[in-house]
Amino acid sequence: MTTSDHPVGIDFGGTGIKAAPVDIEAGDFAADRERIPTPRPSRPDAVAAVFADLLAKFPDCHGPVGVTVPGVVHHGVVHTAANIHHSWVGTDADALFTEATGRDVHVVNDADAAGLAEVRYGAAKGRNGLVIVTTLGTGIGSALVYDGVLVPNSELGHLEIDGKGAETRAANSVRETDKLSWKKWAERLTTYYRTLEKLFSPELFVVGGGVSKQSENFLPLLDLDTEIVPATLLNKAGVVGAALYASEESGTV
């Protein structure tokens, strides 16, 4: 694959939008990542304009474009907006971004993108059976991957546990806001992951999100039957997974 054929991954986050061409054989950036602050408010048209600006920074890359969105995505249409502007609900993001950028754009849930990246290149590479990738951040994102095949839009952060939404008790943002000790947070995470064990009996949990860089502070404190490991792609996972998803959807791999 030549440089011009590399797909571009765009990771749409609450504070910043990051993009880079991706070498999908190596599972790594093919050029330095670019970042532009997320517009306020982050309505679809404003975000689309940022995407166009970001793609202009990679004039030699003409491959498909993958975009992460923190919401449920069906056939390119966004159906939920728990942590983004409400105007995203019902937006055909594939069509909007394709028109705004003049490129072949494919949209995927942000946690699903991270899950694809970790299974193909990272902590779950070579693992068969059901792998559950969770991202601990503002909320809790999740990806279910069975024998390398994504089961999209699982949204397991919204499970009700003891009468409360899981991410309202166990997200990393809650740990920070409530000033929970690692031990106290680990107790909440144990409750969350044990619930997932009962429902899915996975082969492996992979924990992503920025806090995974501090995994030694909390993963050893969890009391689980299932193996649980930190993600390895860290903040690259969204961009890499989005590019991989776009390549597969467009038939270029």
Count of distinct structural domains: 2
Provide the succession of SSEs. Answer: EEEEHEEEHEHEEEEEHHHEEH
Helix residue percentage: 25-40%
The total of beta strands comes to: 15
Biggest sheet, open or closed, and with what strands and sense? 6 strands, mixed
The top-level CATH class of the largest domain is Alpha Beta
Quaternary arrangement of the chains shown?
A: single chain
CATH superfamily of the largest domain: ATPase, nucleotide binding domain
Structure class: alpha/beta
Proportion of residues in β-strands:
15-25%
- How much is the radius of gyration in Å? 17 Å
The span between the termini is 10 Å
Dominant shape: globular
Spans of at least 5 consecutive residues whose pLDDT stays below 50 are: none
Q: Overall pLDDT, averaged? A: 94
Supply the CATH architecture of the largest domain: 2-Layer Sandwich
User: What is the CATH topology descriptor of the largest domain?
Assistant: Nucleotidyltransferase, domain 5
Q: What would you note in describing this structure?
A:
This protein has 253 residues and is of the alpha/beta class. It folds into two domains: 123 residues, ATPase, nucleotide binding domain (Nucleotidyltransferase, domain 5), CATH 3.30.420; 110 residues, ATPase, nucleotide binding domain (Nucleotidyltransferase, domain 5), CATH 3.30.420. The chain is 31% helix and 25% strand. A hairpin with a 2-residue loop joins strand 10 and strand 11. Helix 1 packs across helix 2. The chain is globular. The mean pLDDT is 94.
